[in-house]
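Contributing new complexes? Match this layout with adenosine-5'-triphosphate.
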Amino acid sequence: MPRLLEVEGLTLQYKTPNHLVTATYRVDCAVHEQDRYVILGPSGCGKSTMLKAVGGFMTPEEGHIRLRGREVSGPGPDRMMVFQEFEQLMPWKTVLENVLFPMRISGRFKGKDAMDRALSIIDKVKLTKFRDVYPHMLSGGMKMRVAIARAMAMEPDILLMDEPFAALDALTRRKMQDELLQLWEQVRFTLMFVTHSIEEAIIVGSRILVLSPHPGRVRAELDASQLGFDTVGTPAFGALSDKIHNLLFEHELGPQRQEEDAQA
Ligand SMILES: Nc1ncnc2c1ncn2[C@@H]1O[C@H](COP(=O)(O)OP(=O)(O)OP(=O)(O)O)[C@@H](O)[C@H]1O
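Output block (do not edit by hand):
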């Protein structure tokens, strides 16, 4: 698969009047088309910050982010963020209206073209029967399908999801992971997905970028393409889970954490 997104030497920092916080430090990675690329690491290691930077909402302190060889310099419809609990759906709009909205508001697709695209993607995510209903009448899994359809209608190169299932109970979370994988089988989008759950990373991911604790540095990039729901509880799943656990919790060998106080 060709490289779609390249991250090279990415250092991301927050500068407040009294502090300089280094969120990620010299991170390298590459996402290929149709990857389900998971960024995994403990709380505070800079996962969300990295996704924000890929989304174009943050400028690197050092390094580069390139999409199809072009430097990312701000947000764009080629990278669509799907938010936690799919809260971007507008409750007063039907499924069809929700899918149409970003196309029309951005002016990217208009009139019949927008309508045809919306109907086609709604069909792809198997929601044709529900296209005239409102989000509150849908299950969580269906809402996710609408949120993804809405993003996909813009024909992005990559979908970005930041801990989309973190607030859900364990059973619902499993169901949503399953729905996401089924949808990926049908639509084959490229996904960048942030989680701090090792199990979720292995289930959802085809490749996993393991980041160290704060500030996030690359610990490893692992192949999980052969592991998913049907392998939970198998020795292979357990072995990868143990390996990631060790990577996450072994002592830091490198330089001391980069966070430092800076004089205002
Ligand atoms: N707006 C901000 N201003 C200053 N520091 C911030 C800001 N947002 C995040 N940080 C800091 O940057 C570091 C990385 O945060 P980030 O939210 O990216 O981590 P994360 O790995 O996504 O964590 P979690 O799993 O808890 O969401 C943390 O030390 C955090 O406190």
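Reviewers usually confirm one structural detail per submission. For this one: The chain has seven helices and eleven strands.
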